[in-house]
Amino acid sequence: MLIWQRPRHELALLALVAVAALLPVYIVTAQDTSRVCLTQALVHGRLSNDACLATSVDRARFGNHFYSDKAPGMSVVEVPSVEAVRLPAVQTVRGHSARLWAVRLLASGIAFVLVAWLVGRVAESLAPGLGGASLVAFALGTLVAPLAATNFSEDASAALSFGAFVLAWQRRYGLAGLLAGLAVFVEYQNAAILALVGLYVLVRGAGPAARYAAGVLPGIALLLAYDALAFGSPLHLSYRYKVGPNAQEQATGFFGIGWPRLHSVHEVLYGSGGLLLLSPVLLAAAYGLALLVRDHVREVCVCAAVALFFLVLEFGYFSPYGGVSPGPRFFVPALPFVAVGLAPAFARRPLVTGALSLLSVVPTLGTTLVWTANENLHQTIWGELARVVVDGRSSRLVSKLMTTNAVGLAGLGSGVGLAVMAAAAAAAVVISLRTVVR
Q: Per-residue pLDDT for 403 more than 90?
């Protein structure tokens, strides 16, 4: 059973990683439009939103109406925040919107902080004194950071799915099932994690499995009800009716997933946003999982199975990065499961893991600032960062690719905001690694 432990400086580290990851204010994306169109329809008691989705690239058509092609969970979560900030019709929002940033913050942003908190607590439980280092390495050294201030569902998926696993590890089976079911309501592919955690619970007996299954029911019932009302059958997912760009590709294989391809393998691992290019600390985490096998074999099997499933999904999907995104975002729900290995890696190989953590935070923070520019990086993010050192403000990264941030929108200047983000990230790394290098 997992014994809950609190890392040193936990609140400070969570605040610092939040500042570093949540200040960017990105332009309106297709994810915003598709999800918020459904949110604003729900406010008016509808599921379709023809005017809003008419020009969206992420839409489904059933009968004579347009629907979001996304799972409905994020849209439901954003109803209170959309109403609270009085967001205008999302199809009319242009550029960098402070109100839309607030909506993202109260959904994906909160999920980012929660999953970082979970990783830190699990790490501290496995290796006392190393929870803070693991928290920062995960939160600022993986793709959860660039997606934290967006309307993508991956960080929310990671928080709910990993939360379900952690609760099952703590033998709180009903709550584990509740989070697992809600994770599927947020994103369909989380059903794989629901099943794997279910198998983990089933090994403990029929009673725990029954409590887990009962907990799953509300989230699944919500999804079935939505599908029945929107698409005429509880078993018809929105992707079945996708129209517009990529509709043909989405219809091939299993909703766009086919056999793994070598090109996709390269992009997922070593491409411009590849997992090993941006987050080499994941290698240390994988090593740490191997160290855990002796004492936590069942838990390691779940973590490895989740990682393998989402890797295969990425390798086989027709668009490994899922359109304009910072990297192979479909793997993000698996990241906290891999991060379970960070604490034992820090314990066994502190200097190597610390170095890999630093080599992950730097490019990930750079990617957080530039990915929405949708321009080709010269010699990857590392090349762009190297030119900043040489060329300073005249470098391409600073002059063309840096995104707007909340400090800039407040009138204090985006440059000040960038400095605040960099300082917060640096402080988080220094504070967290102090216990590692002693």
A: no
- Cα distances from 359 to residues 277, 281, 349, 382, in angstroms, run 9, 8, 15, 10
Picking from 259, 278, 258, the residue whose alpha carbon sits closest to that of residue 268 is 278
pLDDT (tens digit, 9 = 90+) per residue, 51-92?
999 988 899 999 999 999 999 999 999 999 999 999 999 999
Which residue in the block uniquely carries the two structure tokens 């893991």? 353
DSSP H helix total and E strand total for the chain: 24, 3
- Tokens standing for residue 289: 């999982």
- In angstroms, the CA 198 to CA 157 distance is 17
How many other CB atoms sit within 10 Å of the CB of residue 175? 17
What are the distances in angstroms from CA 111 to CA 95, 145, 153, 381? 24, 11, 9, 26
The CB-side HSE value for 326 (13 A sphere, CA atoms) comes to 29
The pTM of the whole model exceeds 0.90: yes
What amino acid occupies position 332?
V
Structure tokens at 379: 């010699």
Place of tokens 């917060």: 424
Are the CB atoms for 344 and 291 separated by under 8 Å? yes
Beta-strand pair 65-68/242-243: unpaired
